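Hi R.,

Here's the chain you asked about this morning:
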Amino acid sequence: MIGTNAAPDYDQSKACLGHFDMISLVHKGDHPGYEVYGWAWDVDAAAPAARVIIADSTGRIVGAGEGGVNRPDVPKVLPKVTSVATGWRGLVAARGGKVTALAVLKSGKQCDAGSLQLPGD
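And here is the predicted structure, written out as tokens:
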């Protein structure tokens, strides 16, 4: 999965809601690593996204994350989100540049759940 292209299963519709909230450096050096956080909601399934793929600006997969993290703030702001378990946490291995969180939907498609700029670029 890491190093392959995420584009073939990409859904450009608004099949999800989400946000890429934070990046934290966990390993410095020649091969930096980051811990990343956000939230994602599968609109059609009316459920949190169980998995997230992190892709760089070329669509190459540079990380992944798992859902199920409690985010009680999300349904307070967005009433159509009916679960507090919308949060996700992941790891990224990349050196700078823009990265995008792609929520993996129950349909098997991927949906843009937000982007952030990694330090270094």
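One quick note: The chain has one domain: 7-118.

Cheers,
M.
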